[in-house]
């Protein structure tokens, strides 16, 4: 049996007039959790519309999903759902001139009792924490990450590159979007973090790990602490965070 704790927070930050991030944590009747973070972009209110559409449509699809007992089932569902939502956002923008060119990143996690399946488009990220260690699960679909992957610049150089925010993929694009899909096995005390770049642009992995793995505060308090530190470091962007913590409970047999 697995005990799951969740926390979610979305903050406008200290500079932006509108929060163009969206997200949520949604419980399925079968006991699975769907965790979503989206970071919208576009003129006027288009970014807000795109990210909200992505989250709401993902939630609608989630409520009708059949049982996902195997990772392959979760992967197929997540792939098809992200592709479907990409098409719907693109068509909505085509039909409404005010929303022309709008788009959004998305990172999604399906959390079951045995495994976690993640999908992402753009540079909103998914991390896993275990025993004071951090691992980024997702790969950014960004210009600078492509440079890192090709060996042209280092990961450290990428943090300060002038084109750091240039995306190569986002929801709302014409044609297939081809999200990245990953599945990992749950272990005791794993914590999953999904977040927009309003967090990762302001907090390095060392400090992130220190806050997330703190055992002196609740999961909600840790999420709030992450947001507060990002705002203390400038808060120029919206900040959205979802945390999911897993405790594996071993049921002991009774003693006669």
Automatic annotation (TrEMBL):
<feature type="domain" description="PPM-type phosphatase">
    <location>
        <begin position="5"/>
        <end position="246"/>
    </location>
</feature>
<dbReference type="InterPro" id="IPR015655">
    <property type="entry name" value="PP2C"/>
</dbReference>
<dbReference type="InterPro" id="IPR036457">
    <property type="entry name" value="PPM-type-like_dom_sf"/>
</dbReference>
<dbReference type="InterPro" id="IPR001932">
    <property type="entry name" value="PPM-type_phosphatase-like_dom"/>
</dbReference>
<protein>
    <submittedName>
        <fullName>Stp1/IreP family PP2C-type Ser/Thr phosphatase</fullName>
    </submittedName>
</protein>
<dbReference type="Pfam" id="PF13672">
    <property type="entry name" value="PP2C_2"/>
</dbReference>
